[in-house]
Amino acid sequence: MVPVLSNPKHERFAQELAKGSSASAAYVAAGYAKSDSNASRLSGNEKVRSRVEELLGEGAEKAGVTIERIVAELAKVGFANMGDFLKATTSGDPFFVYAELTDEQKAALAEVTVEDFKEGRGEDARDVRRIKFKLHDKLGALEKLGKHLGMFKDKVELTGKDGKDLPVTPVTIFQLPDNGRG
Q1: What gap in Å lies between CA 136 and CA 145, rounded to an integer?
Q2: Contact 51/2 with Cβ under 8 angstroms?
Q3: If residue 144 lies in a helix (H) or strand (E), which one and from where to where?
Q4: Backbone angles phi, psi at 156, to 5 degrees
Q5: Helix (H/G/I), strand (E/B), else coil: 39
Q6: Which residues pair with 127 in a beta bridge?
Q7: What pLDDT was estimated at residue 171?
Q8: What's the pLDDT tens digit per position in 105-132?
Q9: Is residue 14 exposed (0-12), middle (13-18) or buried (19+ Cβ within 10 Å)?
Q10: What is d(CA 13, CA 43) in angstroms, rounded to the nearest whole number?
Q11: pLDDT for 57-72, tens place per residue?
């Protein structure tokens, strides 16, 4: 556990960073004169970084946010199947019954729209209910899950034999003669 920072300005700076303020804004809010370089330097201070991490962790803990819970929610969206939301009449026409959805299925729903209207005129008019539903972004959820599990890399590191650094070969840059061609 990281105690409250002994320097009150550093503590305020850390709290502002934990709230989502930029380093420059946090620096000014802590009572310092505006200085982007000093704000950057202070945000890199190990004690300040540790304090910010603790404050963020406390906030997540109070909100009940855990990695496991986030992964579970992403999985609900990523593995939702449109077919699990529909039933079929005896003639094969699809229909949607919200009341029969599980909480897991409801978590994957982004939108449900219900339209009631009359179709036709006079005695031939009939009541129609149109229900549309949309699921959250399945591919986005799967990508986030994959990144969390280390399946996708944003950065590729190249190394030589046995993981050693690749040799760097110096290159000499020279200029070709102009020969009057511009």
Answers
A1: 14
A2: yes
A3: helix 138-148
A4: -115, 125
A5: helix
A6: 118
A7: 73
A8: 999 999 999 999 999 999 999 999 898 9
A9: buried
A10: 8
A11: 776 667 666 788 888 9
